[in-house]
Amino acid sequence: MSEQPPLPKPNRSLVYVWIAALSALVAFAAVYVTLGRPDNQPAETSARPASEAKSSAHPLATGAMTTFVFKPTPEPLPDIRFVNGTGEELSLDKLRGKVVLLNVWATWCAPCREEMPGLDRLQAALGSDKFEVVALAVDKSGIEGARKFLADIKAEKLAAYADPTAKEGTQLKVIGMPTTILIDREGREIGRLIGPAHWDSAEAKRLIEAQL
Question: How far apart are CA 37 and CA 41, in angstroms?
Fold first, then answer.
């Protein structure tokens, strides 16, 4: 009988690679089973009927106000400081007792310039001792820059307000300009809209009037 050639010794490096790959596969499977969702099981949101999803939206967040986000319940706001057209220091607390639409903007913000005439018309239509549009320039150009801006766009009803430190927007958690915050008589945030909007629209007026 002829002698059989010896079998080759297993490559230990290759064995270790296969073991490591198998371990990683097992770990991945464990995580997927724990955290994942079967592909044939729809998410809860997509499983809801369209009519039910539509009814869950706030009835006042329609038309021009579709992107207005209501708080589940009104939330307190920080008592930010700013100045008026004469340089007098004010705070949000001094505006308590009236509904306030606080528009946070800057002189360099092009969308702010586009929406400001609508805010001026809203103030003309609804402004009173019960409601005011407060257009707050969070801008280092200060109150002079705010006054010039409003004069340039021929805003006749909006008062000039400014935060020359340009820091109070952070206190309000403003992440982009313009941002408009609706505030109730007790100084609490009802909700906000990020970005420009048609504030003189019928939907905007209905949103404001519902708080008066």
Answer: 7
